[in-house]
């Protein structure tokens, strides 16, 4: 089964670490835009920077 998520928008709560970060990176890798919502700004921005370094679209929102 194949699902195309390219161009979709995801809001990932708890996206600074663990499963949230992994989900954000995976979704961005498949072409989705990702908003990371988390209280930890430093870790969230690190995930956003990693996604952007691979030409992904990502933003952080506290």
Write the layout of secondary structure elements.
Layout: E1 9-13, H1 18-29, E2 33-37, H2 41-53, E3 57-61
Parallel strand pairs: 1-2, 2-3
Helix pairs in contact: 1-2
Rg, rounded, reads: 11 Å
Number of domains: 1
Low-confidence stretches: none
Shape: globular
Order of helices and strands: EHEHE
How large a portion of the residues is in β-strands, by DSSP E? Answer: 15-25%
**Major sheet strand order:** 1-2-3
- Largest sheet report: 3 strands, parallel
Helix content: 40-55%
End-to-end CA span? 35 Å
Number of helices: 2
Structure summary, number of beta strands: 3
Model description:
This protein has one domain. The protein has 62 residues and is of the alpha/beta class. Helices cover 40% and strands 24% of the residues. A three-stranded parallel beta sheet has the order 1-2-3, covered by helices on one side. The mean pLDDT is 96. It is globular, with a radius of gyration of 11 Å. Helix 1 packs parallel to helix 2. The chain contains two helices and three strands.
């Amino acid at each position: 089964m194949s699902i195309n998520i390219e161009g979709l928008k995801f809001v990932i709560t708890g996206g600074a670490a663990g499963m949230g970060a992994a989900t954000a990176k995976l979704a961005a890798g498949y072409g989705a835009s990702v908003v990371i919502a988390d209280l930890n700004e430093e870790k969230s921005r690190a995930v956003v920077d990693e996604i952007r370094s691979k030409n992904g679209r990502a933003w952080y929102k506290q």
